[in-house]
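S.,

As promised, the NAI run. Input:
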Amino acid sequence: PVQVYETSQDLSRLLRRLETCGKPFAVAINGLALGGGLEVCLGCHYRVLSDSPKAVVGLPEVKVGLLPGGGGTQRLPRLIGIQKALPLMLDGNPVAPPQALALGIIHAVLPQAELVPAARAWVLANPQAQQPWDVKGFKLPGGAGAMAPHAADSFGAGSSRLMRATRRNYPAPLAISAAVYEGTQLPIDTGLRLESKHFATLLAGPVARNLTRTLFINKGAADKLERRPAGVPKAKVTKLGVLGAGMMGAGIAQVAAAAGIQVVLIDSTPQQAEQGRARIAAALDKAVARKQLSVERAATQLALVTATTDYALLAGAELVIEAVFESREIKREVTSKAAAVLGPDAIFASNTSTLPITGLSAAWPRPAQFIGLHFFSPVERMPLVEVILGKDTSPQTLAHALDFVGQLRKTPIVVNDSPGFFTSRVFGTFVDEGMAMLQEGVAPALIENAARLAGMPVGPLAVTDEVTLDLQKKVYDQSIADQLPERFVRHGAQPVVNKMLELGRIGRRGGAGFYEYSESGKQLWPGLAEHFPHAAEQPDAELLRRRFLAIQALETARCVEEGVIEHPADADLGSILGIGYPSWTGGTLSYIETLGLQAFVDECHDLAGRYGPRFQPSEWLAARARAGTPFHA
Ligand code: NAI
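Predicted complex:
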């Protein structure tokens, strides 16, 4: 931290010299000014910003677990007041030129060609420029300190809001709030030193490293299709077939149409196909009502979707994705029907969430051109696509599938075939751990809260209600029918699932599950206490929190061991973007490394002693820990 402190002080001192050296500085901002870029601008006396739609300003450091360390936490509040400045730094969202002007971050918005002349003219007209905070008698707009009229909300209620939002897992927002609260009551030079101290502490901690590595560097690389095999010419899908116009099929058709792709959406009856198209129309209408989309663009997108039962219309599609019921029989049938129409270059993809790809590919005449494209629900909002390689999938098919994911502007990860692939398999352990806790007699509210304390977006009982309990049973029955190896069969959850199904509580869709549902919302079903009696002694929430984090991380390590995951970045990204593993960890493998491999193995031994062999680390992992071989280079 000391070294980081010194380095970050360098930039701070430089900008301080710039604004106090006695010469006027004006800046003409012709595009993005985010983070350090905006901080340099704030160190100038005058700022003009282009009116181009690409021009935005903002301080997004919080998103990678940092604070604006180049004077941002000190200059922005002094410029526009704490009340306006704090949310900009806590949310980290960029603002467009009109907003930036209204907030007072910049002095004028001008057409691109007038920027530099305007900045020049200002410099010539203002030889004696000074920053407002260096003028004698400066008062911070809206006031600073505990007595400021907004202090109770900004810092009192504000801190509670931050605690609730971060569950103490993310230190940056609190550090930003502290730097602003303390720094604005001090002379600016002292405030800048204080900012550097907070910055150094964050930068030296694990959360900033985890967020930066996974959500900035590795996500950026995945979005640039880093895993695309080299040497395969780039391909573009112009016509897509989607089989099954249900929730997932309609969602996939919608995002494809939004990317300008012509879509043929097929279901078994004209009514069902039309229902899928109506679902898309409704989603587009909603986007128009929210002003996210123009009426014309919505109409253009909808016009790209043809709903039909006629497979002949698939002719000419470069790619077909099936999203029919999760049944091998039905999937085989629709795959063969499509094969009869499609040319030799076409690729066939399955959106299955559990059925191994290699098996499904037998129904396609060219298994080399068969691949898994696993989307997440709701498709239009979830950024991840899990790309699954079957045994015979060719590098060219992978390359073209990745090109398609890029066309949709989604983030791909690439995994090898295995029951549940990567994301469903790891997510299963989270859900099952929640059920195991219920079975042990842990109070349901404690289970749900411990998961949220860990940073999971929803508790395991709530999420099981969403996907419905009968689906859990189907997956279980299928794994027995397929005679999967024991480690893939989710025995642990079954007593709870069976009991709930006996009680007729299948989840939200049936109006009753672990929760009860009413007009006013949902709450945990009090009847759970009768069927899963509370243990006399309740465990510490921290222990439950660690269980949730560890079991998913351990399953991920198994996926690496078995070759399902080849690149650690895929596991980290997939766990955060696909199944809601908390981002402060950097993902399941980064979590292991945050604890330290040996410490993680010790933790698993401890948990195995308490809760059973599912927590037992493999000899492979133990050896890796002894050798000190990290997952990330
Ligand atoms: P859904 O039940 O909403 O939609 C399935 C559609 O397929 C229905 O419209 C049905 O009429 C149609 N269909 C059934 N048999 C057909 C046939 N022979 N020919 C043409 N259409 C037929 O199901 P959902 O949720 O959209 O799931 C579809 C697939 O996506 C499944 O394989 C599922 O495992 C997978 N999946 C589901 C996710 C989810 O969150 N629901 C997430 C990721 C994958």
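The mean pLDDT is 96. The CA atoms of residues 52 and 496 lie 57 Å apart.

- D.
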